[in-house]
Amino acid sequence: MALRVLLIDDDVRLFELLSSYLEQNGFHVIGAPDGPRGLAALEAGTFDVVLLDVMMPGMDGIEVCRRIRQKNSIPILMLTARGDETDRVVGLEIGADDYVPKPFSPRELVARIKAVLRRARPEAAGERIVAGDIVIDVPGRVVTRDGALVELTGLEFDLLCALARRPGRVVARDALLSEAGRGDVIVGERTVDVHISHLRQKLGDDPRAPRLIKTVRGVGYVLAKEKS
Fold first, then answer.
1. CATH of the domain at 192
2. Could you tell me if 171 and 221 are in contact, meaning their C-beta atoms sit under 8 angstroms apart?
3. Helix/strand/coil (H, E, C) string of the chain?
4. Structurally, how many domains does the chain consist of?
5. Residues 6+ apart with CB under 8 A from 130
6. Domain harbouring 42, CATH code
7. Which of 104, 115, 142, 166 is found 20 to 30 A from 83 (Cα to Cα)?
8. For the segment 176-201, what is each residue's pLDDT rounded down to a tens digit?
9. Structural domain that includes position 141
10. Do the domain assignments include residue 193?
11. Is the domain of 140 the same as that of 108?
12. Last residue within a domain, chosen from 85, 120, 155
C-alpha cells in the first residue's frame, strides 16, 4: 500500500518534481498550495507524513506546524530555503520531526522521510491492525475475524485497511480508494459501494442492517470501533 504524503508548498514546480519522484518510490502525493488548504486536507484525509514549506504567503509553515501539533502527531518534515539556525530551532521546538534545507536532492528527501517514519512507526515492518474482533496482518495480507480466516481480494484488503486505520471515523466515498492507496482503480459511480458490499458479506456483516461497516448517507463509510 502506497504511503500517503501531504506536501504543503506554494511552489508548483517543486510539487511537480517531488510528486513525480516520490510516486516512483512508493509514495502517493497530495498537494496543497497554502497553509489553510493544507490543514483542511489533513482534516479530510489520512496521511503518513507531511512535507511543509516554511516560507509561504499568509500563514507560514511555522504557524501551520503549530496548528497541526495541536491535534495531530503525524510526522512533519519542514522544507525551507532559509539558513537561519533560529528558524530550524523554532520548527523543531514546536514539533517538527526533521528540517530539510533547500535546495535538496529528492533522493535525500526520500531517505529523510523513511527515517522519520521508522522513528514514528517502529512497528510498521510488522504492522498489525486490530479493530474490534478483526485482526489484520498487513505485511502478510491476512485478515481474521474472531479467529476465522477471511479471504479477501487485493482491493477489498486495501479498503479494509483504509477503514481500520481510522476506526470510528468516516472516510468519504470519493476518497476511499485514494485512502487505500489504490489510484490505479478507475472509479465509477458505484465502484466503492459494490466493493464495500462484497467486503461486508465476507466479514459476515448483515447487508440489511450492517453493524461493522456502517454507511453514513451522502458521505461515506465508517468501521465500528468495538466488536459487533
1. 1.10.10.10
2. yes
3. CCEEEEEECCCHHHHHHHHHHHHHCCEEEEEECCHHHHHHHHHHCCCCEEEEECCCCCCCHHHHHHHHHHHCCCCEEEEECCCCHHHHHHHHHCCCCEEEECCCCHHHHHHHHHHHHHHHCCCHHHCEEEECCEEEECCCCEEEECCEEECCCHHHHHHHHHHHCCCCCCEEHHHHHHHCCCCCCCCCCCHHHHHHHHHHHHHCCCCCCCCCEEEECCCEEEECCCCC
4. 2
5. 136
6. 3.40.50.2300
7. 115
8. 766 665 554 555 557 788 889 989 99
9. 126-223
10. yes
11. no
12. 120
Are 157 and 110 in the same domain? no
Report the distance separating Cα 151 and Cα 216, nearest Å.
Answer: 26
Whole-prediction pTM: 0.56
Beta bridge partners of 198: none
99 shares its domain with 192: no
Indicate if 112 and 201 belong to the same structural domain.
no
- Give the whole-angstrom CA distance, residue 163 versus residue 168: 9
Q: How far apart are CA 134 and CA 199, in angstroms?
A: 13
Shared domain check, 130 and 72: no
Q: What is the mean pLDDT of the chain?
A: 83
Residues 54 and 82 sit within 8 Å (Cβ to Cβ):
yes
Residue where one domain finishes, among candidates 82, 105, 120: 120
- Separation between Cα atoms, residue 11 and residue 84, nearest integer Å: 20
Grid coordinates standing for 101? 534545507
Q: Is residue 228, in this structure, part of any structural domain at all?
A: no
Q: Which amino acid is at 97?
A: D
Compute the CA torsion angle 15, 20, 23, 28 (nearest 10 deg).
30
pLDDT in tens, 128-145: 888 888 999 877 778 999
